[in-house]
Amino acid sequence: MKTTRVGIRCMAALAALTLWVSFAADIDGKWTGQVQGRRGSQAQTLTLKADGNALTGSLQGGRGGPVEISNGTIDGDNISFTVVRQFGDNKVTQEFKGTLSGGELKLTVSGGRGEPAQVTYKKE
Description:
The chain is α+β, with helices and mostly antiparallel strands and 124 residues long. The chain is 21% helix and 60% strand. It has an 8-stranded antiparallel β-barrel.
C-alpha cells in the first residue's frame, strides 16, 4: 500500500515536471507582433530562449535597433522581462508581462512613454 502511494506521488511529480518543461520549450524561438507607434504600426521580433525559469533573448524592431532582454522569467505560462533602450543621453525602460498560450504571447508593455499597451506576438 505504501509503495503504491509513493508510486502515485512520483508519477504526479513527473507529470507536473513534464508540463512545466513543455511550456518552457514552447517559448523558444522567434515571435512576431505589430506594435502601434506614433508613425503607425511597426513590426517587432522577439527571439526567446528558456533555461529553467530564466528567459533570455532579444527584441528587434522600432527605433534604436535590436536590444537584449533582461530580468526574464518564465513561470508556467506566465512570462516577464525588461528591455532598456538608450537614445543619446536618454534611457527608456519597458516592462513586458503576460502569458503564453499555444502559439501566442499576449503581453502588456508598460514604461517608456504613454499608457500600457497590449501586444500579441505569434510564433514563426
